[in-house]
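Hi there. Long-time user, first ticket. I'm pasting a complex I've been working with (about 786 residues overall). I'd like to know whether the download I got is complete or cut off, because the file seemed smaller than I expected. Thanks.
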Amino acid sequence: MDQKLKIELSKQGIVTTTLEELYNWGRKNSVWPMTFGLACCAIEMIATSMARYDLARFGAEVFRPSPRQADLMIVSGTVTKKMAPQVVRLYNQMAEPKYVIAMGACAISGGPFKQGYNVLKGIDRYIPVDVHIPGCPPRPEALIDAFMTLQKMIDEQPLTGEGRPRHLDPGAPSEFVVPRYGAHDLEPPNNPQVFHILNNVDSCEAGGVDDRGD
Amino acid sequence: MIEEIKLRLEVSIPGCHAEIILNGSPSGQHSLLLDPAHAVEAATFLRDDAELRLDYCSNVTGVDWLQTEHSQGYLEAVYHLYSMEKKHGPVVLRLRTENRTDRVHLPSLTPVWRSAEFQEREIFDLYGIIFDGHPDLRRILMWDEFEDHPMRKDYVEPDDYEYEPTPHDDVLTKAKQHAMRQPR
Amino acid sequence: MTSMTTAPVKKEMHEDLAVDGGQDELLEISLGPHHPSTHGVFRMDVVLDGERVVKLKPAFGYLHRNHEKIAESASYLASMPYTDRLDYICSLTNNWAYALAVEKLAGLQVPERAEYIRIITAELTRLVNHTAMIGFLTQEMGASGTPLMYAFREREKILDLFESLTGSRMMCNYMRFGGCRVELPAGWLEQTKKVVEEFPRFLDEYEQLLTGNEIFMARAQGVGVLKRDLAINAGVTGPMLRASGVNYDIRKVDKYGIYDRFDFKIPLGEHGDVYDRYMVRILEMRESLKILNQALRDLPQGPIMDPKTKIRGFRPKPGEAYGRIEAPKGELGFYLISDGSPNPYRYRVRPPSLINLTILEDMCRGYSIADTIVIFGTVDIVLGEVDR
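Hi, the file is complete. Here it is re-exported in full:
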């Protein structure tokens, strides 16, 4: 829609919009998160929803404890291998459209505890993540920024064609395989549908980052 | 003070051998190595004796000593005891297993001090010491189907270093080893 | 798992339990690990007879992050940021406990100014922790977040102080072996004095809302009683122990730091129920304010770090040490074994939250599920510490 025409019309008192804009405007302004705090980042999430950095003014009015009633899962804190099946099960129980924010270094890639035998190196091994927030812990303003990024992403999703949200696409998977406890590790160790190892970046051959900081 | 405790233990409980292990650091916290056969009796004596009244077991730790040329390697449980009534402490007790592989039984001191309950379960989970007489010995921190004892010095962790965006130090070494193991 | 999975259990499976003749089916519920009222990922296997709890087994390990194993491959100083993440609400006291243990191991002396700064930050942390705990307790009783909002409002003021001193709101990483990391910034003392002056008014406001409140008293008095002897034998420490009437505060017993120069009392409870634990915490906050006033008044000038401490190449002599402090939740201790190398041979955290959970079953038997949640709230656990 031509913007100048839109502005001219609105000066005359005629408001125009497309179905897509209206639909996405309704969706993005009432994203209800699930209370899913695992570790330290959970305290910053609670602080974000408190009086000083109020998250409710962005539409996240209530944090629903039940996954059936929530739209957004903010994975805040380290996901351990013992907890991972539960996280995936909760994700499967959420109804479409659903989004995931990986808050903090631990949820993105294991964080400072990466070398642990019980630490899952990032929740994106099993479920698709929409927004990642770096930080340990990220400030409440960073969580608000991530929320706004998510709102922008929702706003830009077309309703038909490529890139439409999963609840309008009957072929897209919405439940993912739940890992089982094995004798030494989780089985499977990651979900290849979701965990895309970048093929053209071989971190080991490139040498990685060594102590000199090169 | 630790010599007095050793003497009184050996006098009150016939057959009990206690050995003083000196501590090299400036903290001065020397420990008493007990033999497992008389450990429960010694613990009850320490808790109920009128002068000591060590009624508070603060900390139970597991330690893994690898095989060296001097010893065949053993697992150890270290108990730190304080007294809430007399406000003194710490008295450090040590119990050692015979080796690291098959003879890993120790008596549980949970009937004497209830605070050892969860901590002994944790030592069973992470080190593999089996405490005889513990009311509920099962894994506490890892899942029940897990089979290794992760805090041992010779534990090999599972290899999930497929993708490391900014590896350095230990993680870089492990990622390189993972890459060398992959078929090209 | 989501909050409740239920399965009716026939009586034969729990023969050891004494059940009322009228009920002939016990209900076994798995509460957690994802539940709106737990302080993190914590699970309880509860067996119910009608509404009353008959058996309760805690199950945790969902946040086991292998802190002790990582510390064995890292140097002593590299483990300091990990201690922040143990009890993530009070990070400065965790730092102090670890620094104390290493100072005992290596025989380091801490200058006077650093000791005063340590006490100021530790008592501010105690205020932060107790306000957050009371806020969460009221939310679990059903107050829907209003006292929690007030508590977090005060907490934010103290977190501002921490941020200007250490650079981070929560993960402060401020203590070093032999002193503190950086000098106080300009104007910090005045800001702190202002916060400490205004705090008693907030406590009065809170007490006006809660202490004489009929609903609060009905839900808290007589619930979750913990007797003295069981508390001592089970190794319970901190405000939970003092609410049961045992006078044991490590600040007075060990006199670590320079706590013997300060004049403060130890509040004790009589009955050992939820209400006593709440009152002990409120009174402890008032005593902390007294300590803060004295420390801010007497803070001397001087260096903040022991000049003989080696930052690089820190290798203590072979030996071991156990250092403990009175953290807001109980006795936090670190046990270190050194074999002369830059990394510790064994690094052990003695977590107060884990040991305080030992008697959760004894406290909750006979009460309903709603009371169990409230009793669990007063144990005041943080899963980062329980699981490490």
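A couple of notes from our side: Residues 4-59 of chain C form one domain. Strands of chain C lie at 4-9, 26-31, 43-49, 52-59, 175-176, 179-180, 319-327, 330-338, 346-350.
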